[in-house]
Amino acid sequence: MPTWKATACSCSNIALIKYWGNTDEVQRLPANGSISMNLDTLMTRTSVEFRDDLASDHVTLDDKTVSGAALGRISRHLDHFRKLAGITTFAAVESSNNFPAGAGIASSASGFAALTVAAAASLGLKLSERELSSLARLGSGSAARSIPAGFVEWYPGSTHEASYAASIAAPEHWDVVDLVAIISQGHKTTGSTEGHALAGTSVLQQARVASAPGRIAACREAILNRDFATLASVVEMDSNIMHAVMMTSVPALFYWEPETIAIMAAVRAWRAEGLSVCYTIDAGPNVHCLCTVADADAITQELDGMPGILEVRRGGPGRGAYVESVE
Ligand code: DP6
Questions:
Q1: pLDDT-derived band of residue 55, with 50, 70 and 90 as boundaries?
Q2: What does the radius of gyration of the chain's CA atoms come to, in whole angstroms?
Q3: CA 209, CA 197: separation in Å to the nearest integer?
């Protein structure tokens, strides 16, 4: 077998309508559809080289060797590509993020999207964007949404092939800005994989899933019409509903810190004063403040003046995952 190496890049994404809970945990078939925006400044670059001389997969992330459960998850993902190519060869994987690890910015979306595109390219597999999205989903659900460009919808599906994400609008369609307020993290939070498995234990999950299609339609329309006011109300509502499910699962999951709640209140006040801004929060304490370009500097200044925020990271709509080089 020739030794082929490919490098791919992928943006992270922020969910505007959230994915929380699966109908199939192994295949990561989600309980509901979701919508997201790729973030152009939060990127992962990954190279994959399948090599005959390796006795096992070797993975580094930001120059540190990955082992244990994290390595197992990556190896299982590589197995899908070995199977497609009809090989058993192990791979050397080098991955790096342009954002600091441990800052609570989710890296599994950009990480598994970049890994998927690099692995497929290194083996010369000719796969469509849709097939790449379904494959990325097997590694991390939200990674399915980092494959297509810009504003993206993930169709939940009930089979592997039917569960994939596609672009609703190109990155140039709308200059929405995400200001990520990074909060100091005092303690460990429950990871999303573990959290998804608990979603069904909340009596609210059924109502959340049943009402998701309405929010998906409203969010999609708001994006297509560049209607920030409608986007703001549906995005905040959807985040609040997901956190209500988290807080009422067994065991209960509380991701908010005091600073999180302070920012949520401030965002609502800024909006009442006329700024185009809303919040959305994932499985951690950081607050994503979505706003229009016109209001981004004013909101950054406000956030900079608040206590307990380590850093504010700015991102705009990003491109889809892409192959950087094949050697
Ligand atoms: C709260 O995609 O990280 O960010 O499939 O187990 O890797 P796994 O979960 P993940 O879940 C994301 C959960 C969320 C909401 C979202 O991004 O839609």
A1: very high
A2: 19
A3: 15
Which atom of ligand 1 is closest in space to residue 112's alpha carbon? Answer: 7
**Residues 191 and 96 placed together within one structural domain of the fold:** no
The rounded Å distance from CA 142 to ligand 1 centre is 5
Protein residue whose Cα sits closest to atom 1 of ligand 1: 282
Atom of ligand 1 nearest to the CA of 14: 17
pTM greater than the 0.90 cutoff: yes
- Tokens 């950054």 belong to residue: 300
Question: Which residue's alpha carbon is nearest to atom 4 within ligand 1?
Answer: 282
Shared-domain flag, residues 190 and 284: yes
- 276 and 136 inside one domain: no
Two structure tokens written together for 154: 């993930």
Atom of ligand 1 nearest to the CA of 109: 2
For residue 155, which of 137, 178, 169 has the smallest C-alpha distance?
137
Domain count, the chain: 2
Q: Is 34 in the pocket of ligand 1 (CB under 6 A)?
A: yes
pLDDT band per the 50, 70, 90 thresholds, residue 187: low
Q: Are residues 27 and 141 in the same domain?
A: yes
Helix (H, G, I), strand (E, B) or coil at 226: coil
Cα of 327 from ligand 1 centre, angstroms: 32
- Residue 96 has what DSSP assignment? E
Q: Does any ligand 1 atom lie closer than 6 A to the CB of residue 106?
A: yes
Residue 283 belongs to domain with CATH number: 3.30.70.890
Instruction: Tell me the residue range of the domain where 21 lies.
Output: 5-172+318-326
Residues 109, 31 share a domain: yes
